[in-house]
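Data deposition worksheet. Section B asks for the primary sequence of the deposited chain exactly as it was used as input, without tags or linkers unless they were present during the calculation. Section C holds the resulting structure in token form. Section D is free text for depositor observations; keep each observation to a single sentence. Incomplete worksheets are returned to the depositor.
Section A, Depositor: J.P.
Section B:
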Amino acid sequence: MPETRQPSPQPSTPWPTTPWGGGWIPHGYHLAPHSHPQGQLVYAAAGALATATERGTWVAPAQRVTWTPPGFAHAHRFYGRTDVRLVVVPVDLCGELVAHPSVFAVSPLLREALLALTDRREVRPGAHQRLLAVVIDELAETPEQSLHLPEPRDDRLRAVTDLLHADPGRTATLAELGRVAGASERTLSRLFHTELSMSFHRWRTTLRIHHALAHLADGRSVTETAMECGWSNPSSFIDAFTEVVGQTPGRYQADLRHDTK
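Section C:
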């Protein structure tokens, strides 16, 4: 997403803003790289967030939750005014979930459990532990839906991805980018599949969706976002966005406006 690769000033808003893990975060808030001895779930009940690690960037709009296992260095950036919910997962429960950072879809039951865990202090002894068990059970049965943008290690491939990070709307073909990077189209296509486990087209589409989520959260129109992020027309953007995110960009933006009133 925009600026996830760049440092930014730290706003004065603390995070989280309540002792039990909930609070509103302003647009653009950036939490510098850090790690935790325990696992961490971060849910944007409204807004969107990006979690960046050395393995790439994961993005979670309002209907998804990010998971970071213990020990993974990571940074967060928030897009739109974000209702963020933070849930710490004890080490002895982390083995129930995947061993790498990821994003999961949020079912109605999972959403209510996350909100209940972070809306208020524990009143009855053991209540939070029981709710956390529900969260773990739901996540263990939920397939990953990672808006994951992996980052390459190969210098030739990194030269290409750096060009696209600098200008996601760039329409150059892989062959054209390869000439700039000093590698053949065939070599780069192979590297995308072997190192990043996706095609060039899929990687660039995911990068553009990351930027589109941020643009929409910032109040830009669907048409403006489509043009800035490299789609030739709004219809093709809407199709790609809906396939990856699970809702149309218009609905995503409408939900943002509704949730932040």
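Section D:
The longest strand covers residues 74-89.
The chain is about 40% helix and 20% strand.
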